[in-house]
Structures are given as structure tokens and as C-alpha cells.
Amino acid sequence: MSAVRQGFSSRIGFIFAAAGSAVGVGNIWGFPTQAAQNGGGAFLLVYLVMVVILAYPMLVAELAIGRLTKRNPVASLRALGESPRWQKMGALVGVLGIVALSLILSFYAIISGWLVAFMAAPIFSLLGMESIANWLMEFSTSRNLIMMLLFLVLTIKVVGRGVANGIERWSSRLMPLLFALLLLMTAYILTLPGAMVGLEMYLVPDFSQVMNPDLIVSAMGQAFFSLSIGVCALMVYGSYLNSEDNLPRTAAVVAGLDTSVAFLAGLLILPAMFVAQNNGVQIYTPEGSLLSSDTLVFTVLPAMFDVIGTAGSILAIGFFALMVIAALTSAISMLEAPVNTLTEETELPRSRAVWVVGGAVAIVASIIVLNFNSLFGLVVTLTTVYAQPLLALVFGLMLTWVLRRDRLLQTMKEGNPELTEGVFWKIWPWYVKFVCPLMMLLVFFY
Ligand code: PHE
């Protein structure tokens, strides 16, 4: 283990970084398109319930595991058990989490590469370099590979600079910019003709859908993905957290920020779709269902930007810049967990570990690009639909069943000495121990 462990320099720095991890493509693209396909306001409602009753308690658990030992995820999970058998189990769970996270990064880097391409294309177009712009916007193996690599190198550069100088500094710069861009874009789109139809679709719940099993499972998956739960990304950030920080409160701020951005993004994307329709762009399939989500971001919106003309190009650059920022701060957190584990478990310096992990992810991502049709969807489903909820569940169980209760209380009390007097401590431990597993089983079998 390295002698001096790095950490965030301030609580607000942690919040920017953790919110940066949580706020990603999942919020700005995933959430609004899922809402559009699942009854608008009904999805929003179920999503909010899922965040409060499942995702938030598990987020506190994951951060607590990290802060308990202030070590990498594998070491942290190992340290929860007293007996060698539990320690081995813990380490295994940690390794699985890191592997799942690295796989998430490999498909995330591909999507992020497209986003970078779509951000750059209108710039080249404005400069009159149409052939480059066209290459950037066409789905080709060369574009997919090169842009994915470019995005990964950017991520590696930030993480290579360390926790405070790289991750915290860049998250603190980029997150306020993201908020500002999102607000500006939303305000503008809402003034365009057609926007109100989308707004209505988003905000008025179709209550007949609320109990729809598909909707409930999608909302749960979306909540876990959006809050980066179950794959050690926030566990490693938790391990850099100070002993003075109040965990339940800090986690609530992060969950609140993440949910607000998802909600705001819905105010941008759904109205934008109907603005596009107003401009003659098709947004429904002939069967009457909404076009699938990737078409939406990479076809419908660009088509609308095209119709608007020069202002549209600027809008397009702004919109994809927003997505790239969101993607970058999330990708940083995905790279950090394996990098931290490698540096602490093998004493490899960070400057090398980032390239080792980043290189491995680049290889896996290239394999996915080269076998796109058979692998892409598979990796997404395997990691986000199965691995994230299951591993999150195991983290919660390890914390509440395997860890001695006095050690759990001790870590939860750090930065929060009145813990045992409040309601949180009366509910949370048994809630994570019994209710969360039961609810998740229910959702899975439902
Ligand atoms: N929460 C991120 C998003 O919404 C994705 C993510 C998943 C980040 C898992 C880290 C770990 O896009």
C-alpha cells in the first residue's frame, strides 16, 4: 500500500466529484428517453420512489464501506469480514465489482466517443470541412475506434493527475459548467414551437402505467445506473472522504443533485423531440411508438439542429458538449476504482497504473467495436441490468450481516456524533439488512 494516501481536499470537492460520477449519459440521455418510452410522468414518479426507497440507502452503504477502511474497494470489502473465509469472499466481490466497472467503462467510452464526434462535427461543418464532419457523424468502425480511444486518453490524463489535482479539480470545473449549459439549453428549447407538447407528455403522469412491471424494472435499473451504484465507483470515492463528513447527509446531497439533473434533462429532451417533430422530423415509428433512444440522440436531435440553421449548429455544439462533460466526469470515476486498486495492491505508481488499466479497457472496447452487433448490447445488459443491482445487494448484505455492528456504528458516527438519536440509525441498518434484499427480489421476480 502506498505510504501517503490521497484524498479529496474538501467536502464540496467530494460532492462535485461524486455528483460528477453520478451525473452522466444515464441522466441526460437514458433518463429522458426511458421516461418518453414509459409513460412520461409515470416513469418519473416510479423513478423517484426507487431512488428514495432503494438507491439512496444502498448509496449510503457503498460510501460507508469505502470510508470504513479508507482503502481500495477490494481491500475494503475484504476488511469487512473477521474470518478468512469472509475475507476471501469480500475480496472476490470487490474484484467482480471492479471487473464489471471496467466493462461499463469499455462500452461507455464507445458511446462517449460518439458524443465527442457529434460535438466536433458541427464545428468542422462551420469551418467548411464537410468531409471530416461527415466522417464524424457516420457509423463506421474507424470513427468508433478512433473516437473511443481519444475519449479514453482524455480520461486517463485526468485520472493520472491524482485525486485532488485531477479528479476533484476537473469535476469542480466541469460540473458547474454542465449545470449552466443545461439550464441555458432548456430555457431556450422551451421557447420554441412544439415544446409544450413534450413538456406535457413528460410531466403529466399516465397512472395506468405506474404498476407496469416493465416500467418498474426499468426505473430500478435506471436508478442504480444513474447513481453509479454497485460497481465500486463511489466506494472508492467514499474511501477518500474525511472522517468529519456526515455520510447520510452527503449521500443525500449527491442523490439529490443527480436526480435534479435527470429531471432537468427531461425538461430539455422531451420538449426538444416535439420541437423536432414541429420541424418535420419524424419521432414516432409507423406503429406509433417513439423512436428508439439511440436514434433519438443521434438522429432526431441532429436533424432538428440542422433545420434551425446556424443557431442550430451552436445549439448542437452546446448539447453535445453537455453530454461529453457528463460522460467525462463519470468515466473518470470508472477508471479510478481499478487504478486505485492496482496501485495499492501492487505498488505500481499511478502514472503507470492509469495506462495499464486504460490500455486493458481500450482493448476490450475495441473488441466490442469490432463485434458491435453481437457484443455491445450484451455487455450493457450484463453489467447494468444484472451486475449492478446484484453487486449492490451483496455490498449491503456484507455491510449489515458480515461486518460487526459496533464497527458499522463507529464509522457511521464519524462526522455525525448524534447519529443514534436520529431516525436514520433506527431505520437504515435493518432496512438495508432485510427490506432492500426483499424488495430487489420482488422486483426481479415480478
Ligand atoms: N452514473 C453514470 C451515468 O449516469 C454511469 C456510471 C455507472 C458511472 C456506474 C459510474 C459507475 O451515466
Describe the structure in brief.
This protein is mainly alpha-helical.
Distance between the termini: 44 Å
Largest sheet: none
Order of helices and strands: HHHHHHHHHHHHHHHHHH
Give the cofactors and ligands. phenylalanine
Write down how many β-strands occur, each being a DSSP E stretch of 2 or more residues.
0
- Structural class, by secondary structure, is mainly alpha
The DSSP helix count reads 18
Proportion of strand residues: under 5%
Runs in which pLDDT lies below 50 for 5 or more consecutive residues are: none
Fraction of residues in helices? over 70%
Query: Any idea what the shape is?
Result: globular
Overall pLDDT score: 93
What is the rounded Rg?
A: 21 Å
Structure, explained:
- The chain is mainly alpha-helical and 446 residues long.
- Helices cover 80% and strands 0% of the residues.
- The protein has helices spanning 11-22, 25-37, 41-69, 73-78, 84-126, 130-137, 141-160, 163-190, 195-203, 213-226, 233-239, 247-278, 293-308, 310-346, 350-370, 372-402, 405-413, 423-445.
- Helix 2 packs across helix 12 and helix 8 runs parallel beside helix 12.
- The longest helix is centred in the N-terminal third of the chain and has 43 residues, at 84-126.
- The radius of gyration is 21 Å and the shape is globular.
- The mean pLDDT is 93.
- The structure holds phenylalanine.
- Phenylalanine binds at residues 21-22, 24-27, 104, 225-226, 228, 231, 233, 330, 333-334.
